[in-house]
Amino acid sequence: MNPAILHPDVQQFITDHLNTDISKLLFKGSPFKSVSVQELATQIVSKKKCEKKLPTWFKTKNIFYPAKINIEQTSSEVTAKYKSSIITGVSLIDITGGFGVDAYYFSKKLKKVTHCELDTNLSTVVNNNYQQFNIEGIELISGDGIDYLKNTTEKFDWIYIDPSRRDSVQKKVFLLKDCLPNVPENLDLLFSKSSNILIKNSPILDISKTIEELRFVKEIHIIAIQNEVKELLFVLEKKYEESIQIKTINYTKNTIQKFDFQYLKNNLSKYSEPKRYVYEPNSAILKSGGFHEISAQFKLEKLHPHSHLYTSDNLIEFPGRIFLLENNCQYNKKEIKKYLKENKANITTRNFPETVAQIRKKTKILDGGSQYLFFTTLKNESLKVLICSQVF
C-alpha cells in the first residue's frame, strides 16, 4: 500500500477521473512523482466498481482500494447487511476476511469481530479503511485463518468463511472441497472453536451436493438482487440433525420478495393447462429447487413437472413475475405473429428444446416491446408459446 495515494491532491485526481477512459489515462501517465499511473488506474477502476456495490466506502474520504478482483469477490453492502441479521452472540471470527465488508457489518451486531486475511497488503488496506470509519471492536490478523484457529485457545460464537472459488491456477471450481480453504476437510477443527458456522458460497455450487459435503446443516439462505442470485449461505450448527430450512430473498427496486420452505418436504404439485394468470418464480426460488412448495403454499398449478411456470384463474401476490395470458399457440412462426402487436417481444424459454437465440433466428422476432413470450412444454408434453403481458 502506497500511503502517497491518500494525499488530498491524489484523492481529488481519482475522484475527478472516475469516468475517464483508463487506456487514455495509462497512455498519458501519472502527474504525481510518488504515485504511478498503474496505481492511479487501480484506484479509479476499483472505486468506480464500489459506487453502487459499496456506497459507504465510495462516499467515505481516504478509502484505499485494492485490485479490481478483490472488489469483484467481496460481498455487497446489501448481502453483508443480510448476513449480519443471521448471527447473534458476542464474538465472531472471519477466517477469510478479504476487503472487510462482511466484518464491518458483523461488528455492528457483535461486541468482538476478528478479521483474518492471508494477503498482508490487503490486510493493511482494510486497516486503513476501518480507521476512516472509526470502527472499534474489530481485531485484524494478517495471516492464514485456519492456522490462526489451530493455534488459538479462544472460542467464538460464530465462524464465518467465504472460501475462494478458484484453484491454484485460477480456474473456477464447483465443489466446496475444491475451494480454499477446504471447509469439509476442516470441519472438526471449525466445530472445536465454535458451534455455529456461516459459509458464503457461490451461486454456481449445487445445493444438494454441498449438503452432502457438510455436516449439521441447519439453514440455507439464497440471496438475489434484481433477480440475479448473488450468494448461497449455509448455516451449520454443531450436532443439528433436524430438517433443513431453505430461505430465499430477492431484493427488487420496489420490494423484497421472501419465500421459505423445508428442504425435501414431500409436497406434490398439481398440473393444469394455462389459465388466466401465469407466474414465474424469482431466481432465488429457482435456485432453491422448491418447485412443489410453490404449488403447495400458493395453491397454484404447474404447467409441467419441469417447466417451473405456474398458473391460476385468480390473481395472487407472488415472489416473482406475474403475467396476464393473452393467447397461447403452437410453435409456428405465422401463428405466433398473428398475436404480436409489433414484431418484437421479450422471449423466455422454460423446458423447451430450443434456445432464445435459435427462436429469434427462426421467427425474426426482435427483442423488446410490451409483450412476453414463454416458449414452454405443457403437461401433455406439447410445445406451446404463451403470449402474455406483465402485471407485476
User: Cα-atom Rg, whole angstroms?
Assistant: 25 Å
Structural class, judged by helices and strands?
Answer: alpha/beta
Shape: globular
| Residue fraction in strands | 25-35%
Residue windows where pLDDT falls under 50 for at least 5 positions: none
How confident overall, as mean pLDDT? 94
Helical percentage = 25-40%
Note the gap between the termini.
Answer: 48 Å
Secondary structure tally, helices: 15
Secondary structure layout:
Layout: H1 8-16, H2 22-28, H3 37-53, H4 55-59, H5 68-73, H6 77-86, E1 91-94, H7 101-106, E2 112-117, H8 120-133, E3 138-142, H9 145-151, E4 158-161, H10 187-193, E5 196-201, H11 207-213, E6 217-225, E7 228-237, E8 245-251, E9 256-262, E10 270-271, E11 277-281, H12 283-288, H13 291-298, E12 301-302, E13 310-312, E14 320-330, H14 333-338, E15 344-350, H15 356-363, E16 366-377, E17 383-390
Parallel strand pairs: 1-2, 1-4, 2-3, 4-5, 6-8, 10-12, 15-16
Antiparallel strand pairs: 5-7, 6-7, 8-9, 11-13, 11-14, 12-13, 14-17, 16-17
Helix pairs in contact: 2-3
